[in-house]
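Quick log. Single chain, no ligands specified.
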Amino acid sequence: MVSGQWSVVRGQRSEVRGQRSDVRRLAAREGNVQGSGNALASRFMLREEDNTKRSGAALEPALEGLLALAHEAAQHSYSPYSHFKVGAALRLTNGETVTGTNVENVSYGLTICAERAALVRAVTQFGPEIQVDAVAIANLNGSASPPCGACRQVLAEFILPEAPVVFPGADGVRVMPFSAVLPLAFEMKLK
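-> predicted structure:
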C-alpha cells in the first residue's frame, strides 16, 4: 500500500471512532446511563416518561401467574454454556397456557430461546391456528431479558398486536403491548 492510501485508511478509522463517540453521547442522552451505546438495552430501561408497569407496581393477577409459570419453566433450562436460564409462558386465546425454556447447543446458533420453545410446543399441542394473548418471560439470573429479535418475529406470526408482554427490564419488570415490542414486523402478503 502506498502512503496516500494509508492516509485514507487512517482518516476512515478516525471517522469511525468519532461515530462511536456520537453513539455513546446519543445513548447517554436517550437514557442509557451506562453509556454503553447499546441501543437495544437502552430502549428497555425504565424512564420517568414510560407508561408501562414498573418494578414495585402490581401486575394484574393473571400476568403474575403467567410470570410465575415462566419462572418455573426457567428452572428446567439446559444452559451449560452461558448459565443464562430463561423461561417463557404463553397464554393462548383458547384459555390454555404453555411454557418453554431455553435449550443451548455447543454451536450457539442452534440454541433455541424459551419463547420459541413455548411457541413450538403450543403449535404442537393445539395446532397452527393458535393465537397468543399474553407472554411472560423470566430468568434466574436477575438480568434484563426482553425477547430477542428472532423470538419477536416468530411470535408475530401468532400473537395479538395488543397482547401484553411481561419481561425483566434493566430497571425492573416491564409490561408492553407486543406492537410496541416489535413495531415493524416483517410481513409477507401471499397472492
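The CA atoms of residues 113 and 148 lie 8 Å apart.
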